[in-house]
Write a structure and sequence with these properties.
By secondary structure, the protein is an all-alpha fold. Helix content is 86%, strand content 0%.
Length: 59
């Protein structure tokens, strides 16, 4: 990955972590739906990034 892609990836990770933090601190209780939301959002955000930047570089 180039330096610009690393910076973009780091910004996306930090933004996702900040949103997860807000979700966890603002909910009255942490239940299965909250955990599912965090896991699903992580899959939606990070799988396309992995496919674009990491997997293509190995081939």
């Amino acid at each position: 990955m180039s330096e610009g892609n690393k910076i973009r990836f780091a910004c996306i990770v930090l933004l996702w972590l900040a949103l997860c933090y807000l979700l966890l601190t603002r909910t009255p209780r942490i239940d299965g739906m909250t955990i599912f939301t965090i896991v699903a959002s992580g899959i939606i955000v990070f799988v396309p990034l992995y496919k674009k930047y990491v997997r293509n570089k190995k081939e």
